[in-house]
Amino acid sequence: MKINKPYPLLLICAIPWLHFSCGSGDSGGTTAQETEERFEVFTLKKSTLAGNFSLPGELKPFEAVNIYPKASGFVRKVNVDRGSRVKKNEVLAEIDAPEIVAEMAAAKAGSQAAEGEVLKQKALWETSKDHYERMLKTSQTPGAISQGDMLQVSNKMREDSSLYVAAQSQLEASRSLLRASEQMAAYLTIRAPFDGVITERNVHTGTFISQQGSENKEPMFRLEMTQKLRLEIPVPEAFAGLDFQGDSVNFEVNTRPGTMHKAVITRQAGGLRPQTRTEMIEADIVNQDLSLLGGSFAQVNLNYHKENTYIIPTSALVSNLEDRFVVRVVEKQAERVSVRRGLLYKDEVEVFGNLREGDQLLLSPPDNIQTGQTVQISAP
After folding, report:
1. For residues 78 and 209, what is the distance between their CA atoms, to the nearest angstrom?
2. Does one domain contain both 106 and 165?
3. Distance between CA 166 and CA 287 in Å, rounded?
4. What b-and-e string marks burial along 172-198, b requiring 16 or more CB atoms within 10 Å of the CB?
5. Domain count, the chain
6. Distance (Å, rounded) from C-alpha 203 to C-alpha 219?
7. CB–CB of 378/362 below 8 Å?
């Protein structure tokens, strides 16, 4: 019967073990509650976002034009070549077209003949008018002038007056024709429309040129204003709408590495190019020494500032495959608010959405937080 003695001993040992296990579970629950995660918050307010960024730009001539002929003929003389610096109205080339000169001479002769006709008709009208006035005065004496004679004189005066008016109209027409002929003759002399440099020359003495279809051919010359340049900077859509006018920029060109140039923004497009979704801004560059070349690429440093906008730390913005949001705390409960991201500078980002100044936002929310979830806010 000794074999029954061990069993009570085993039961006694088991009971304290079970009691110890239950006590250990209670102690673990108290520790988890005490270590529950708490979040930092900040108050949303509007402020000014300022920063700078670098963009590629391009230097272009302030004015540039392809010069085509407006009259057909042979090139009689060429006064310039590629690289020539010219002044406004300076003669670049001369075209020989005898038929245009002949037309101008004929128009001039026609105008002179019309002037003579006007003088003739004016004299006839004045004579008829004087005769009529004398007859009218004499007719006041009864029986001195018959009604038939008076009517004849009156009709003669009206006829001469009409011929005089017609002669004046003919003179105006002939003068207009002369002016048109003189303009065509003026086209035979090719002049520079502004100060600049000839960058292309495609004609030589004796070349036949035609005004017909000239837009599909090479120009006679290309003239560029290089003593003044435009710095064109395409600004991405994210920065479009900012007011850059009056802001100064620094830029560097590949042709003069290590040399920094300055300019001031003078024009802003105010709209986006549909092909590139960029807004073009321009700065004027004074280039009297011609040290900068039109067509050069430039790297431009731009400063920007945007006032009265919501700016938050980048850690407060959560982005995942489903949404981009911030977490607002309302009565200790989380509320996800979808936002759009704007400008980004260092550790701050601009956001747009259903936000109000004074909102309490989580500083570093987890990406799996859900609306309605209770959050514990850490003491400041």
Report:
1. 13
2. yes
3. 58
4. eebbebbeebeebbebbebebeebbbb
5. 4
6. 9
7. no
Amino acid identity of 112? Answer: Q
Tokens standing for residue 190: 């090719």
Instruction: Tell me the pLDDT tens digit for each residue of 122-160.
Output: 999 999 999 888 888 888 888 778 888 888 888 999 999
Tell me the helices (H) and strands (E) count for the chain, helix number first. Answer: 3, 20
Domain span including residue 287: 53-62+225-305
* pTM of full prediction above 0.90: no
In-domain check, residue 75 = yes
At 32, the pLDDT band (50, 70, 90 cuts) reads very low
**Paired tokens of 60:** 């272009």
| CATH number of the domain that residue 323 is part of | 2.40.420.20
CB 240 within 8 A of CB 126: no
Same domain, 168 and 211: no
Residues 296, 325 within the same domain: no
Q: How far apart are CA 322 and CA 340, in angstroms?
A: 13
CA dist 334 → 33, 242, 363, 369 (Å): 20, 34, 12, 8
In degrees, rounded to 5, the angle at the alpha carbon of residue 95 between the alpha carbons of residues 90 and 101 is 110
